[in-house]
Request: fold
Amino acid sequence: MPIPDVVLLTKADCHLCTAARAAVERVTSGLGVQWSETSIDGDAALRERYAEEIPVLLVDGVQRDFWTIDEQRLTRLLKKALEG
Reply:
């Protein structure tokens, strides 16, 4: 079974990031999928690329959401990835 790589890009002092973390955790925990968080604060390339869109959700390296996480879409994407 393929395991999707779920990464949430965040930055310090970001109220949207707090909500995004909770949304990603709700969806992934329900599906038994691990996820990680990467701060753009210490990475100039990430900061340049995503500064205006944080938080950003990447699934298998593809940007799937920004600012607000659509939990229904994330659930569909992850279920499809898990089915292979």
In short: The helical segments are 15-31, 44-50, 71-83.
